[in-house]
Design brief:
Blueprint: H1 2-36, H2 41-63, H3 73-100, H4 103-109, H5 113-123, H6 134-155, H7 174-181, H8 186-213, H9 217-239, H10 252-279, H11 281-285, H12 288-302, H13 309-343, H14 347-354, H15 369-382
Length: about 375
């Protein structure tokens, strides 16, 4: 039973991260449907974090009302930075790069997040590469294979492969949306895509510090969502003056902002904060290329997008790279677990602490021979 519970604890972060990537697939599909309906993406991002705040804040009040530590100015500053990096900059830079370049390029650029996160985590001392060890080589090699597979999936098509065929086509007139993505300044759009990746990586690093000083996932997510909603709404109001864009009816726009706010910015952020606490920021970022694989599969099923040989080869490389990284991290966790007993107090220290005053004469067995002789001399002097 102990072995089964141990395996379950090790697999829990993995299963949660896979579930998070599936939620990103739904968000990607809803984003496409809302953009096809003509919704401004900056307004969508603002509504997304507003809905997230409205969903997470009651949960934080109910479940963590008596657990929260004292609220300080430092926690407020961290929440502001968390909303800035994780919500405002990461999301708005991404949608801007989506408009200025293309959906393909913007999606491919997000696969740089694991490498950027690894560099930042190593710089801040949160991760150790240990390139001379097998574990370090497996982690770096796994990340490289995963990023390479994601790039292959994105930029190489090859022959078309028809594995399945469905009659579901949710996206109508998608050629108009795609054509608008290829207009604009590619250099500026590329810089914004890189800035979005850097901002998200910084947010993952920041989550490591926040989870230690404020170990309340619901409350920290609520604070982040509140700060992000204020920042995103202010930015959207400055750039979008057409009030018709802010109207929500019983249509795909309301469904998109509700799903992205409650699921993608509410539940997902809570789960990511927990996974960062358990496994670190690099572990969370390493699952990012998996979402590209799932998006390619869901696109062929629901949006009638073509599936090519490059997609299958890239997906295989992403899975292999992810497996190598997880294998390296599991070995690293086992090594740390084996080192824990050596860092505790020695058996001699524990035996001394376990002894209380008034114990039997067996207490003298823990003394050295010199200490015993000194005690005898003192007794003779007293007599």
């Amino acid at each position: 039973m102990r072995y089964i519970s141990k395996v379950q604890n090790e697999l829990k972060p993995v299963m949660l991260m896979v579930l998070i990537q599936f939620s990103y697939v739904g968000m990607n599909i809803f984003y496409k449907l809302a953009a096809n309906d003509g919704m401004n993406l900056r307004v969508l991002v603002a509504y997304r974090w507003f809905f997230s705040t409205a969903f997470v804040a009651p949960l934080a009040f109910i479940f963590e009302r008596k657990k929260r530590p004292k609220f300080t100015w430092m926690i407020l500053v961290q929440a502001f930075l968390s909303g800035l990096f994780g919500a405002t900059l990461a999301q708005n830079l991404y949608v801007e790069s989506l408009v200025l370049t293309s959906a393909t390029f913007a999606t491919a650029a997000t696969n740089l997040i694991p490498a950027i996160t690894l560099i930042l985590a190593t710089s801040f001392g949160l991760e150790k590469l240990r390139l001379r060890t097998t574990v370090g080589k497996a982690k770096v090699f796994g990340l490289s294979i995963g990023i390479g597979g994601a790039m292959l999936l994105t930029f190489y098509k090859g022959v078309e492969i028809k594995i399945w065929s469905t009659n579901v086509h949710l996206l109508k007139h998608s050629h108009q949306i795609q054509a608008s993505h290829f207009t604009g300044n590619y250099i500026l759009g590329s810089a914004m895509a890189l800035g979005s990746c850097l901002s998200f990586a910084l947010w993952l690093i920041l989550q490591t510090k926040i989870s230690k000083e404020y170990p309340c996932p619901y409350s920290s997510t609520a604070l982040m969502s509140l700060m992000g909603s204020i920042q995103c709404v202010t930015l959207a109001l400055c750039l979008e003056r057409n009030w018709s864009q802010w109207k929500l009816g019983w249509n795909i726009r309301l469904l998109t902002v509700a799903y992205s706010g409650i699921v993608s910015s509410g539940l997902v952020v809570i789960l990511i904060a927990w996974c960062v606490t358990k496994r670190g920021p690099v572990f969370v970022a390493s699952f990012n290329p998996l979402s590209l694989v799932l998006v390619a599969i869901s696109g062929s099923l629901l949006l009638e997008e073509q599936l090519h040989l490059g997609s299958i080869l890239g997906a295989a490389l992403v899975v292999c790279g992810l497996y190598l990284l997880l294998w390296g991290q599991s070995k690293e966790l086992k090594e740390k677990a084996q080192l824990i007993p050596t860092t505790n107090g020695s058996p001699r220290t524990e035996s001394v602490e376990a002894v209380a005053e008034g114990d039997p004469p067996a207490l003298n067995a823990s003394f050295t021979h010199e200490e015993a002789s000194l005690s005898k001399e003192r007794k003779n002097e007293q007599k």
